[in-house]
Amino acid sequence: MVAVVGPSGSGKTTLIHALAGIVSVSAGEIRFGETVISRLNETQRDAWRHAACGMIFQDFRLIEELDIFSNVILPATFSKVRVPSDLKRRALELLEKFQVPHRSGSVSGLSRGQRQRVALARALLMDPPIILADEPTASLDPENGDRIAHEFDRLARSGKVVICVTHDERLAAYASSVLTMHDGRLIDVNPHRKVS
Ligand SMILES: Nc1ncnc2c1ncn2[C@@H]1O[C@H](COP(=O)(O)OP(=O)(O)O)[C@@H](O)[C@H]1O
Ligand SMILES: [Mg+2]
């Protein structure tokens, strides 16, 4: 688990979007394992991201026209005509785990904290090997923030790559390294003592 910190406007969101292949880079190389993301075209990057990345956007990017459950199940509907029942069950389990009520309700009535947790459930639905999260606990109360920090720690320990932009000390404390951004540049890479 890697935490990305730095003042507002320092390029944290841009870095996450570049890592995910949402924006292309003008210099340098982005590689996950054998896959050089920065050499793929946009269609290939979209396909790679869909298969490999769970994204939690700073502004959540929920679909207002869809209900809560449909937002969470959305990643499964891109590749499958009919969503398998085990994925539907997983969507419900994730919503329960992150304590989002009224799963058949509209997302428009949800608080920011609830929206953040719907976004988290959606990001984890397909059990992606890479989780990219942009300030994932920013709208959460301490209890829910801790729950998500523990979940990210568990995912990282199970072998997932977790990269999160965060101002949240409790979340950053779980990271094995902390990257500091300033003015669009990475200025510091600090190995971080892992909480045991
Ligand atoms: N390395 C970079 N190259 C070009 N533009 C950048 C770079 N880093 C940040 N920016 C620009 O700076 C602005 C703020 O970046 P952003 O990623 O939103 O910062 P943060 O998430 O840290 O608040 C955006 O307009 C972004 O396009
Ligand atoms: Mg940002």
From TrEMBL:
Residue stretches making up the ABC transporter domain:
1-195
One MF annotation (Gene Ontology) recorded for this entry: ATP binding
Q: Which domain of life is it from?
A: Bacteria
- UniProt keyword list: ATP-binding, Nucleotide-binding, Translocase
By its UniProt entry, which SUPFAM superfamilies does this protein fall under?
Answer: P-loop containing nucleoside triphosphate hydrolases
Member of which family? Answer: Belongs to the ABC transporter superfamily.
Q: PANTHER family from the entry?
A: IMPORT ATP-BINDING PROTEIN (PTHR24220), LIPOPROTEIN-RELEASING SYSTEM ATP-BINDING PROTEIN LOLD (PTHR24220:SF689)
Protein name per UniProt: ATP-binding cassette domain-containing protein
Q: Which organism is it from?
A: Microvirga terrae
Its ancestry begins with: Bacteria, Pseudomonadati, Pseudomonadota, Alphaproteobacteria, Hyphomicrobiales
